[in-house]
Design a protein that fits this description.
mainly beta; Jelly Rolls; 5-stranded antiparallel β-sheet; 38% strand
């Protein structure tokens, strides 16, 4: 019987010699009481030359709402992959032809989809299912950790434009 060779360091770094051009970058998941966020891609990592701006995965625990959020520089492009999401959009953009309009949208495993939320539109995502909700964001602007393009309203029903 032959002993298996070492494949990772004690720190978890892969020791496998990869084919030319193949790269692996471990993902890091950030957890709080609302759920998790896992960054999936950023050109700043120098990982690839393909023109994808940024991507990250989000989970929302059952019964939790993430939001109210507004972006002033980026559009969100959210893909809902698992769980049951209730997305509420509220157009607070001055001069918009739909200023003041509110939309409620639902996504789940049977109704997966990519949703574009233009900059300036206030939005919140609630998990109305029994399991974790998972979505991936492909925003139009890379995330700036030092200066996030994220403006929030409290989830307090008296302060926000909608009661979940």
């Amino acid at each position: 019987m032959e002993q298996a060779p070492q494949t990772v360091t004690p720190e978890g770094e892969l020791l496998l010699e990869l084919a030319d051009g193949v790269r692996v970058r471990p993902a890091r998941t950030h957890t709080d009481d609302r759920g998790t966020l896992c960054e999936m891609y950023s050109p700043a990592w120098g990982f690839s030359e393909e023109p994808l701006v940024y991507a990250y995965q989000i989970t929302v625990r059952p019964g939790v709402v993430k939001g109210w959020v507004q972006h002033r520089l980026q559009d969100d492009r959210l893909f809902f992959s698992t769980g049951t999401a209730k997305v509420v959009l509220y157009d607070i953009r001055e001069g918009s032809p739909t200023e003041g309009r509110r939309n409620e949208l639902y996504f789940d495993e049977h109704n997966r989809g990519l949703l574009r939320i233009p900059r300036g539109v206030l939005h919140a995502v609630g998990n109305v299912g029994a399991g974790n909700l998972t979505m991936v964001n492909f925003p139009t602007v890379p995330y700036d950790h030092a200066n996030p393009d994220k403006y929030r309203l409290p989830l307090d029903p008296d302060a926000g434009p909608y009661r979940f």
